[in-house]
Amino acid sequence: MKRKHQIDFEQIIDAIIAGSPVRDIIIKAVPGGGKSTIPIQAAAKLIPEGLADRICWIAPRMSLQDQAERNFIDPFFRQMFGHQLTIRSSTNDRNPCRGTQGFVTTYQALAVDHLQTVLNDFRINRYILVLDEFHHAEEEGEWTKALMPLYEKAAFRVLMTGTLERGDRKRIAFTSYQQTGQKEFMPCLESDDQTAVIEYTRKDALADKAIIPVVFKFSDGHAKWEKDGQEQQAKISTKDGSKVTAALYTAINTEYAYELLDACIKHWNQHRTTRPSARLLIVAAQIQNAKEYLAHVLNAGLRARIATSEDNDGAVKAIKELKTGKIDALVTVAMCYEGLDVPSVSHIACLTNIRSAPWIEQMTARAVRIDPQAGPYHNQRAYVFAPSDMLFREIAQKIEADQLTPALLSGHGSMAMGSVEGDGSGGGPSITPLESRMIGQSGIKDLPLFGGFSDKIGQNMPENVQNLTTASEAEAELLEAIDSHVRKYAFQNRYNPKRLNGELYERFGKPRREMTIKELQDCAAYCRQVWPLTYIRGTGNMRVPIKAHRYAAAWR
After folding, report:
1. From the first residue on, what is the mean pLDDT of each consecutive set of 10 residues in the chain (556 residues)?
2. Closest Cα partner for 369 from 272, 270, 441, 281?
3. Fewer CB within 10 Å, N side or C side of the chain?
4. How far from chain centre, in Å, is Cα 530?
């Protein structure tokens, strides 16, 4: 069953096919609501109709590239949208599509594409340009400067975001603003002849059963710190704006953090008795904190790994292991911020002092996806364990209101708290944390059901595609197979591998790293046929040299 924003998008695309002048489609969808099908819908309709040649999907993180590839090969989505298209991950490659119908890259990669490999392909092909979480593109920022030539060349532009707001309050590129005060402006979404706007709210997503409700478990605590030679203390829930930042920072860097983490683990373990597939996400303030929390979790007997910007490849591997159930918990800093798509995550331990509404929305969304293995919809909940500071509770109230549930708290006034987005490598306030203790927990025991819906959610949920091979994985396997064959043949026959690699370059007219999957398959078959491996016992003088056949003219 298609969701509201998918239906709205399909109607816009159908109108474009029928002659509508719309070129830009802007989508604001609640985090976790499922924006990842939108690029598939666009490509599945516009490319076969001859209105576009290729699709370029730009994501905010490298870890999201694999996910984008898998979305395109997901059998469920292929059936839903009636397509057989494939995309590959590319980082400023020549011919980025390599025989596929598109590619996925990152904002960071585009910013350093000094050879303009992507732009060159945009000049000769009609592209659908998809900007995923486009609020990352700051007005006048470096990423935006790199994007503008692509934006102008694209045949169609699809801009998607889960939150039309930046934590640093800077303006978002490609967005209109309206004045709300003397010096205050807010983003606005407006449709016109060439622009279509789609909004998909939390209420819409809950009505569609696209996400599950969130239960917040807040813990208060006493914190003690030293500042300017003076010892100070306060509760985490303090209303004293001069102390709240220091109290929170102290809490996540002393005993309180581990007490909250233990409370989350205890609840998670109880939850697993009825939902064995449940996984745990731990969000730290800084990389050093994440390492310490990982040690604590491992000592508690959980299978866990860490995902931080220090090791991008390791982070991608850790996320895959969480998806496949090889680990129970993932400790991260900012890798959870956007796009982490692991439906089995049921619990989040929030141990960070970042307090921007967009960040908290994105973090919370990591646990609101429906888990097909978790049983009926009405039995599923997302649990967020967090410090009981005023700003977090204020944001939680807004989420609760969207869930049509009673407010968690009586009203508190708005309060600004300094925070920095990013990977948490920066420091905190100029204080020395001394100690902290958790003193109690509050939260909703359960949430009311949303009536009138079927619990047969498994029928319309994408199946696990982790075992399917993406284009990037196929390329890597073929490259390794060819490299291995060349090395073995060279060893067996006392050849310099460079000679064989040179012959392959002459035979196929390009480096292997620029070949399509079909060309790599042909190259591998050529190696097996023309340079057969021999298996002779012994080494050194016992090896019998076999003369190589310089790319046989009669091959195939």
Report:
1. 90 96 94 89 97 96 87 93 95 93 95 93 97 88 92 96 78 80 74 91 90 92 90 91 90 94 95 92 93 95 90 84 93 71 92 85 89 86 93 87 52 35 55 82 52 36 66 94 94 90 94 95 95 68 50 50
2. 281
3. C
4. 44
475 and 430 within one domain = no
Own/partner contacts of 534-537, CB < 8 Å, gap of 24 or more, are 534/492, 536/492
**Residue whose structure tokens are 């205890």:** 266
Whether this prediction's pTM lies above 0.85 is answered by: no
Residue 233 and residue 271 share a domain: yes
Phi and psi angles of residue 174, each rounded to the nearest 5 degrees, phi first: 65, 25
Count Cα neighbours of 490 within 13 Å in the Cβ-side half-sphere. 15
Measured distance CA(382)–CA(371) in Å, rounded: 11
| 108 and 83 together in one domain | yes
Structural contact between residues 464 and 282, judged by C-beta atoms closer than 8 angstroms: no
- β-sheet bridge partners, residue 41: none
pLDDT tens-digit readout, 60-84: 888 789 889 999 999 999 999 999 9
Q: Are residues 139 and 246 in the same domain?
A: no
Instruction: Give pLDDT tens digits for 273-300.
Output: 989 999 999 999 899 999 999 999 999 9
158 and 10 assigned to the same domain = yes
Closest CA to 525 of 506, 551, 495, 547: 551
- Supply angle C-alpha 482, 485, 491, rounded to 5: 140
The total number of structural domains in the chain stands at 3
- Are residues 91 and 47 located together in one domain of the fold? yes
What Å distances lie between residue 157 and 26, 134, 272, 365, CA to CA? Answer: 8, 11, 43, 25
